[in-house]
Design goal:
Blueprint: H1 2-17, H2 29-49, H3 54-92, H4 101-112, H5 118-122, H6 141-174, H7 178-194, H8 199-205, E1 217-218, E2 221-222, H9 226-239, H10 241-270
Antiparallel strand pairs: 1-2
Helix pairs in contact: 1-2, 3-4, 3-6, 3-7
């Protein structure tokens, strides 16, 4: 997906900056439209890139996982929205918001998130204008009220809360495996970047030995060694059996996680 989006960005950027009307230097209508799509895709591509980086990657992967789950169930929302939009189009087609099937579909979709605009639909019929404009009339008041109440119950309460519950359930499920996914993406990214580097740079980046230098004096005293301080502080913890057992359990847990990551990476490389 990232490769396709980057290819689109390259092509659309070239088409956007190219001057087809050399006389006046203005961009054509399709170039402006492509420019808006290019800017949008550029920011989305940045979000896809952030999946490989630290804490940003955790929430980015979580967002796309919830988006994938939503796209699976979007047909259910589409059926309900289409059914209500056709009903409102048949009852309120004299009003501007429901004047066509497309307008009714968009209006019903917006109403789903809470923008019902009840006063504009129903209260304009009480206007003192004589004769009452046709766009303010509600020909079938009782049936329209009935569909409006059913829409509130089904779309604004049941389906929206179901979508929120689905997102929360996905968060609990994805958080267990999200760190492994981020590490896997980071590993693939590093391996792909190493493929572009020349061999002599890769050799220079690999260190076969490490040279330790003696600590220099600072104002007549030795600089504090953080490793030595850590060892001294850990003596008290090692003397406590409860803390020692907890550290051993934590170390065993880390070893098990590393083994699991290695096994999964082997499966990924085999695929």
């Amino acid at each position: 997906m990232e490769n396709i989006m980057e290819l689109f960005l390259y092509v659309s950027s070239i088409l956007l900056v190219y001057d087809f009307d050399r006389c006046n230097g203005l961009r054509r209508d399709w170039q402006w439209q492509m420019g808006s799509a290019t800017i949008f895709c550029a920011w989305i591509n940045l979000i896809l890139f952030l999946r490989k980086l630290g804490i940003f990657g955790v929430y980015t992967i979580l967002f796309f996982r919830i988006l994938e789950r939503f796209l699976v169930y979007i047909w259910l929302f589409a059926v309900f929205i289409l059914s209500f939009s056709i009903a409102f189009y048949a009852l309120l087609r004299n009003q501007l918001a429901f004047s066509s099937l497309g307008e009714a579909f968009m209006k019903t979709s917006v109403m789903m998130i809470g923008e019902l605009d009840f006063g504009t639909v129903f209260d304009n019929r009480f206007s003192e204008d004589i004769p009452l404009p046709i766009e303010n009339q509600v020909p079938y008041v009782e049936l329209t009220y009935l569909f409006w109440i059913v829409f509130l119950l089904v779309m604004c309460i049941i389906l929206v809360n179901m979508m929120i519950a689905m997102a929360v359930d996905d968060m609990n499920e994805v958080q267990r495996d999200i760190e492994f996914r981020r590490l896997m993406m980071t590993s693939k990214f590093c391996l792909s970047m190493e493929g572009f580097l020349p061999e002599y740079l890769l050799r220079r980046s690999i260190k076969n030995e490490i040279t330790w230098k003696r600590k220099k004096f600072l104002y007549g005293k030795l600089r504090p060694d953080p490793e030595l301080l850590q060892r001294i502080l850990s003596l008290d913890e090692s003397s406590n059996p409860k803390k020692r057992d907890s550290k051993e359990n934590e170390f065993i847990h880390i070893q098990e996680m590393l083994k699991e990551i290695n096994s999964r990476l082997k499966l990924v490389t085999e695929k």
